[in-house]
Structures are given as C-alpha cells and as structure tokens.
Write a structure and sequence with these properties.
The complex is a heterodimer of chains A (about 400) and B (about 325). Chain A is about 30% helix and about 15% strand. Chain A is α/β, with parallel strands linked by helices. In chain A, helix 1 crosses helix 5 and helix 8 runs parallel beside helix 15. A two-stranded antiparallel ribbon of chain B has the order 1-2. Chain B starts with 17 loop residues before the first helix and ends with a helix. Classes of the chains: A alpha/beta (about 400), B mainly alpha (about 325).
C-alpha cells in the first residue's frame, strides 16, 4: 500500500449515529427499526466522510460568572431573568426530537420575548447530526444526547454557555451541576433524563425483586432478557459488584465478565428492542430501557419496573448552542426559559420525562412524581451513574470481553 | 441471403448450454462476432459494468483500504499507518464459536433448502402443466412483503404463547410451552424460509431443461426409478443444485438480520459481530478486516462449488 491517503481521516459519526439511532428508536417508541436494519449495509457514509480536524469556533463571549451552580441557592422565586435583560434577536432556530417538548413551552417563550421560534424536528440522531454538522447547519440550538457532547465539544461545534444569561441555573438539581460528559455544564444544559433498569412480569416473578441479581436467578432460566449493548450490560454488572459503571480497572471488568459468563446460559435473548422483549411474555424478567415501560404495560399490564437497589444507569439529552448560531442571545434566553420551574414542570407534565430541574418538582403532576419509573426516589437517584464515552482503548477492552461472551 | 448471425449472447433463441457458449463468444471467446455486433454487445455491457463498479468494486475497495487503517482521534479512520494489525485481531480465536455458528446455520439452511426445494421444483416442472408460471409466481409471492416483516411474523408464530405452542398445548403434546423462539431451530427455520425461493428457481430451470426422453431411455434400459434418478436426473441437474447451494449459502452466511430477530443468547453469527464493530464499536478498520475475511471465506467456498459446476457444464 502506498501512502496516497496520508493524513486523511474519515469521520465515524455516521456509524455512531446509526448505533444511537437504534437505541433512540426503542426510547422514542418509533417503528422505524426496519429502516435502520436495512440501512446498516450502506457504505455511503464513507464517501460522505469529512475530516474532523475541525475549524475551531469562536468561543462564546466568555462565561462562568455564576458557574457555582445549583443547589446552594434554592431560592424562593422559581423564575429569574438575567439583569439587565439583554435584547434577543428576532428569531431562534431550534432543532428538536419529534414529540419531545410541551405544547405551551415554545409559545410561552415567544410571547415573553417577542422572538419568533422556527422549530424543525428529527426522529433520529442519524439525520440530526448530519444536518447539524460542525456548526449547527443553520440551527441555533439543538438537543444532542449527553454522551455525544464530548465529541461535539472536541470538534468545536458548541458555544461555551454564558451563564450570566442563565440565572435559572439555580433551579438545576445538585446532581446535574457537574456531569461527567460536560464538566460544569460548560457547553450544554441537561434537558430530560431517563433510566435503564429491570422490568418483570408479576405473574411469573412473584417475590418483588429489588436487586439486579434477580437477572441471575436460575428459577427464570431461559426467560431472562438482556440488553444487547455491552456498555449497559457491563454497567449493570459493575454496579452490582459495587464498581464504577465505566470502570477502567480491568480486574473489575474481568470480575463482571465472569459473572456474565455464569448468567449467559440462563439468558434467552440479548436485544435492544426491550418493548418486544417484555411484551411477548417470553421473558419474565428483563434488562430494559425505562422509557419503554408504558408501551410494555399497554400489552402486558403485569410488567413492573424497578431500578436495582445497587444503583442503575441513567442517560440524558441536553440543550446546546451551536458555534454557527445566528441568534445566540435568544438561544441562551431559551435555555433560561427551559430552566424556569413552571415551564420545566409543564414540559414534564406533557412529555412524561423528568427534567434536571429541582425547583420544578413542586409543579409537576403528582401522578408522575409518584411513578418510580419516571421519578425514582432521591436515594436511588443518588446511586444512578451515567455511561460515558469510554474512548477507543477502553472500549476495545469492553468489546473484547463482550466477544468472549459469544456476543 | 445469408442468415443473420445472433447478436452477442442475447439473441440466442434456445435456452440451454448454448447460452454459455454464446456468452463466451460475446466475451471474446471461441467464436468471433463481426465488429458491429461486438460494438453493440459492448454498449449492452455498459450498465452492468457501471452497476458493478459503483455498487460493488468501489465499496469493496474502500473496505479493503480501510481494513489496513487504524482509528484516529474522535473515532475517525486514519490511513496514516497502514498495517495488518486488524487482520491479526480478526484472527482471534474468540471469534471461532461465532464463525462456527454462521457456518452451521448456512450449511443447515442450504441442505434444507435443497431437500425442500428439489421436490417442489421437480413437481412444478413435471406436473405443473399449464400452471407452471402461476406456480412459480406463488414461489416468488413472499417477496411481495418485506423480509423483515415476514421474519417478525415468525416471532409471533414461535413465541411461548404463539400459534405453534398454543396448538401443541391444546392437543396435549405438552403442558408447558416448548421454547422455540431464540434458538438454533428458529434461526435455521427463518433462514430456510427466507432463502428457499433462491434455491427453487435455479433448481426448476435445470430440471425443466432436462429432456424427459433421457430418463425414459434409462428406464427402457431397465434402470429402476431410483437408479434413473441417481444416474441420469441428479447428475444432469447438478448445475442447478450447485447454483441453488451458492444462492442460499452466501446470503445465509452473511445474514445478521434473521439471527437478530429470531435468534437468542447463543446464536450470535460472525456477520452480527461485524455489524456491531461498525456501529457500537465505532471501529471501522477492525470491522472491515473481519468483514473482508468473511468475504474471502465466502469467495473461497464459492470457487470450490463453481469447480464442479464448470465440469458439469463442460461435460454436457
């Protein structure tokens, strides 16, 4: 081979996106899996590859005056305005998931600031990230998944947030002040979050399980479903062992692998389609996406959901302002608006996802607050861990052991 | 007035071995066509070659190049230092069980497709009469629905409280559901169901071309029905059998959809691993190397199968 391609790099985002697409589909309850599987063979993304060495963006008008976020100031007033109120641009271009924002959320922002919001929707990260590119592709603000934030930051796609424009930051729950994927929320703001946990059919699993060890119970042999996702599976097992869900200690990882090897003969199926896993009634207990529980209960009302007492895995979406934003002030004001306790609560009441907003809880529908699958107890929330991008070397170690399991 | 010579291979009227002769002629083989006809045949080749180039040669070449690369920053593909590292990793014995799964499923699917497809093709050819075309359309009928949807339908049939188990329990064969879904059985069933039409069509063509007079001659010479089949029918339809085997084995060994939908915890195939390396693993060079080796394996198997095919055709 000659070195004719010296230095060229091909962006792998498309591949990542397709993977995330599949996960997202289970979460978003869309029936587009067909398209995803069919498209998996396509090699077109290589052609469309772009170098990721990234034109560095002009960083935002610097920030972090009030970076000492959150909890300390559990102030009485749930809404705050930046002082002095800056005048926003006339428009704001937002790119969001479909059916992922309350019906009044945007009109109330438009009315308050006289900004015209142009809202476009996407159904999967594949299409979204392709359009957003390295600068937002004309959109000021979008909702990337938290695990992707480091990659967006690394290629300079996001503006650093000016916290002086986001006084409602004080409403943010303490556990969101310094997420691993974006230390200090420098480039993103949490939007909504969810958990991965365990679903079980009460007609077959009669003694209310509380531990993730129930997935190792030989009484349920060949009726146990596991997620086909090595980070989730290792995450669950590592947490059960009392370790970090993203551990880089290979000894701990080997321990988890040994446990999973014991479990494998009992497992019926590994799949990311957790709705099908539990609706079919073939599996009595399964490792599932928390957001799928409602759909599962529609076809099998006997399925209940819990987060293991040892702790669980959570994921989240963020709001981020892109480096090419034409309306950055309006975008910041929008983020501030979303962190308003009333607005955030309205949003949750509409879309049934919990936000990171501690002050909003007072205004959220009690039915949602009392549903442990959407709003787990604070002591469980404290034990939730977010999966992070492991990076190539560590990912290889996880993947090698996953292959060892015959996956 | 001279008789018009056939244009390339396409105007050859009678199907049969002469097809191959004519094709060889078009490719500059034994017979030489006049220059004008060579031009026409050249033009006719353009779409096919363009198709192959764009949808086969270019992607395969890209995979080939990528397979020597490595991961760059941000999971990009770096071609700065080309090496055989990925091939070394792809030869890891950890993949042996998954590779064996793939081979097992593909072999079982091929054998079952032949065993089921041959009698069907034979029956259509010999007893189909005026309805042959209709019967062949019926064979193709499943293609009118997406393969995915049909495979998902098997989930409903095979699950614990599905159609099969309900019947078995109703007639008292079993009191507890038998686990059918997520097993070797369901994967092989799904693949055989999916690839059977690919076997029936070439089998039908070769059986239909077989001159019944040859079989009649064997019987006249006191061959039993069984002997006539084994010594006349079977050898003469061998090209169809080999074509059918290739057309089922190749898609079966690369299939990751069926094991994904109908398989379980123990049915991982090598194609599934390749898919995962590309998507979740974000390691295209590694996935490309593994995929390329699978491709070489398939190619080797095909060449082995084509050897006898050539001999058979040559012997006709």
């Amino acid at each position: 081979m000659t070195h004719e391609h010296d230095g060229s790099t091909i962006d792998l985002e498309q591949a990542l996106d397709r993977y995330l697409l599949e996960r997202r589909i289970t979460r978003r309850q869309l029936l587009e899996r067909i398209g995803a599987v069919g498209a998996a063979a396509a090699l077109a993304p290589i052609i469309a590859a772009c170098t990721s060495s990234a034109a560095s963006p002009s960083p935002a008008p610097s920030a972090s005056a009030a970076a000492s976020a959150a909890a300390s100031a559990a102030a009485p007033s749930p809404s705050a305005e930046p002082t002095p109120v800056p005048s926003p641009e006339a428009e704001l271009n937002i790119y969001n998931w479909t059916e992922y924002i309350g019906e009044n959320t945007i009109p109330s922002f438009e009315a308050k600031y006289g900004v015209k919001v142009n809202l476009d929707f996407f159904a999967n990260t594949d299409e979204a990230y392709a359009k957003l590119g390295n600068d937002g592709g004309g959109y000021d603000l979008s909702f990337p998944i938290s695990v992707d934030i480091p990659a967006f930051v690394a290629k300079g796609a996001l503006l650093e947030l000016d916290k002086s424009l986001i006084p409602n930051l004080k409403n943010l729950g303490a556990e969101w002040a310094d997420p691993k994927y974006d230390p200090g929320n420098a480039h993103s703001m949490p939007y909504m979050w969810w958990t991965t946990g365990i679903g079980y059919d009460t007609t077959k699993v009669t003694d209310t399980p509380t531990s993730s060890k129930a997935l190792w119970d030989p009484r349920y042999a060949k009726h146990i479903g596991m997620l086909d996702d090595y980070q989730e599976v290792f995450g669950l097992t590592l947490i059960q062992l009392g370790y970090d869900a993203n551990t880089s200690d290979l000894g701990q990882l080997d321990e988890a692998t040994a446990l999973l090897e014991q479990q494998k003969p009992l497992v019926r199926v590994y799949t990311t389609n957790t709705r099908e896993m539990m609706s079919s009634k073939d599996n009595w207990i399964g490792h599932i996406w928390g957001a799928d529980i409602y759909t599962i209960q529609e076809s099998n009302e006997n399925v209940l959901y819990y987060i293991p007492e040892e702790g669980g895995v959570k994921g989240s979406d963020t709001m981020a302002v892109f480096s090419g934003a034409q309306h950055p002030i309006a975008a910041h004001l929008f983020i501030n608006h979303m962190l308003d306790a009333h607005v955030s609560a309205d949003n949750t009441n509409f879309i049934y996802y919990m936000g990171p907003n501690a002050a909003a809880k007072a205004f959220i529908d009690p039915a949602i607050l009392s549903d442990p699958s959407v709003n787990p107890d604070q002591e469980i929330v404290a034990k939730l861990q977010e999966l992070i991008d492991l990076g190539p070397e560590l990912r290889d170690e996880y993947q090698k052991r996953w292959h060892q399991l015959g996956r | 007035m001279a008789v018009e010579p056939p244009i390339g291979g396409l105007a050859t009227p009678a199907p049969g071995p002469s097809d191959i002769d004519a094709a060889a002629a078009a490719g500059g083989g034994r017979r030489r066509a006049p220059i004008g006809n060579r031009l026409v045949s050249g033009i006719l080749l353009v779409p096919g070659i363009a198709w192959l180039l764009v949808f086969f040669v270019v992607p395969v070449a890209m995979i080939f190049v990528v397979s020597f690369g490595s991961r760059g920053p941000l999971d990009s593909i770096s071609l700065e230092h080309l090496s055989l590292d990925n091939y070394r990793r792809a030869l890891d014995p950890v993949f042996l069980p998954t590779l064996l799964n793939s081979l097992r499923y593909a072999a079982a699917t091929t054998i079952l497709s032949l065993a089921i497809g041959y009698p069907i093709a034979y029956w259509i050819s010999r007893y189909g009469g005026r309805n042959k075309t209709l019967l062949l359309i019926i064979v193709m009928l499943p293609f009118w629905t997406s393969y995915l949807i049909r495979t998902y339908a098997w989930q409903i049939v095979l699950r614990d409280n599905g159609v099969v188990n309900s019947i078995l329990m109703a007639i008292g064969v079993t009191s507890e559901p038998i686990i059918l879904l997520n097993t070797d059985f369901s994967v092989i069933l799904g693949m055989t169901y999916g690839f059977l039409p690919f076997a029936i069509l070439p089998l039908y063509v070769s059986i239909d071309r077989l001159d019944p007079a040859l079989v009649a001659a064997a019987r006249d010479l006191y061959a039993s029905g069984r002997a006539a089949f084994l010594h006349v029918t079977l050898p003469l339809t061998m090209p169809g059998i080999i074509a059918a085997s290739i057309l089922t084995f190749i898609p079966a060994i690369g299939d990751f959809v069926t094991p994904d939908i109908l398989g379980g915890s123990e049915t991982t195939t090598i194609a599934k691993v390749v898919q995962e390396l590309f998507l979740q693993g974000r390691d295209w060079p590694y996935g490309a190397a593994l995929g390329f080796m699978l491709m070489l394996l398939t190619l080797g198997g095909t060449l082995l199968a084509i050897g006898p095919l050539r001999r058979e055709v040559g012997g006709l």
